[in-house]
Amino acid sequence: MIADRVAALDTQLFAHVESQTYDGDRKSLLAIHNAVAARTPRFSYLEIGSHLGGTLQAVLADPRCARVVSIDSRPQWQPDDRPGFTQFEYPDNSTERMLKSLQHVPGADLSKLQTLDESTENLPPGRFTRPDFCFIDAEHTYDAALRDARFCRTVMQGAGIIAFHDFEIIGPAIRDFLRETRSPQRGYLLSWCVFVVELGAGATLLDDPGVRSQLRPRRGWRIANRVGVHTWLLGLVHRRRLKASTAALGARPA
Asked: Which of 155, 170, 186, 232 could be 145's S-S partner, Cβ–Cβ 3.0 to 4.6 Å?
């Protein structure tokens, strides 16, 4: 069953469409997916920055996910804050290409997928049904990441899970998002570079063993509702990992 494969963090669920993620990223996304589904059996998912649709595969195949929204402005070139780069190319970046690829995903229900070829700066949050889980992996710049995070916070009405990809690039935007967010919150880093922000006063996903297994760093991680601790964690890990990860990332599209 798909639920068992998600719980087992089976990364082969992402094997049918190319995804610009590492194996650790995929396990972290599956761990969040599993924990959200356990507490909200009919959950809603919103993704900003889908490109080829690789990270949509598991939620489209899982009937526990009732609704999937993909927001992507579909640029051919996109600014990027990664050291040594100013922009990345996304050739043939179209919704049509993504949908054609997703048709090959076993069990994928494309009828629950809504796509919008637009930036969040041009979308009124009030038009969306509140998602339980948001994933941000669009333009990797400070301004865009902060804008997308604010959009998700508003759409989620202050309660839900926001996961950010490529933490080592957009860490400063996440830090400032945590600083300005007054609702109850906690933030933590999962493998490989997925940073999770939990909004609202509900139970934490860290009660789930699958999520805990993906915590990074394994020693000295801090969970708190005070922005000061979040800022310390973000700054510490960002400084340690940015230099090491830049070479590994190379010219990989984000």
From this structure: 170
